Amino acid sequence: MANNKAMMIVVVVVAAMVVVGFGPQGAEGITCQTVVKGLMPCTNYLTKGGAIPSACCRGVRSINSAAKTTADRRTACECIKVAAKAYKVNLKNAAALPRQCKVNIGYAISYSTNCKTVR
Where does the pLDDT of residue 1 fall: very low under 50, low under 70, confident under 90, or very high at 90 and above? Predict the structure, then answer.
């Protein structure tokens, strides 16, 4: 079971990197690995609902703090979309997560969000 979860993380990170590419943000910008790692404590809530663990909100706040530039926020947006599809999250739960964690990310979490318009 743990190996399956680890493999899923690797698949999500690689897929997200392919989607957003290896642009100029490089080492100083946010990475999909950072986004996925920050959201890992949220997996049960995002897929099944229920209580949101405090570690989940810490991860959401950490991602939001790390996304300092427009490029970072766009990368995070794309990574979230890829992870949401890979983990088959409940989009209603995903959309509510920033508000539940008292974080304003500035865009809706949805498959239809155009991350290129994120500022």
Answer: low
For residue 56, give every residue at least 6 positions away whose Cβ sits within 8 Å of its Cβ, in sequence order, or none: 39, 41, 42, 45, 97, 101
CA–CA distance, 5 with 65 (Å, rounded to integer): 26
Burial of residue 33, with CB atoms counted within 10 A of its CB: 0-12 exposed, 13-18 middle, 19 or more buried: middle
Q: What is the dihedral of CA 58, 46, 108, 98, to 10 degrees?
A: -20
Q: Is-contact 35 77, C-beta < 8 A?
A: no
pLDDT at residue 112 is higher than 90: yes
Between CA 10 and CA 77 the distance in angstroms is 18
Cβ atoms of residues 66 and 108 within 8 Å: no
pLDDT tens per residue across span 2-13:
545 544 444 444
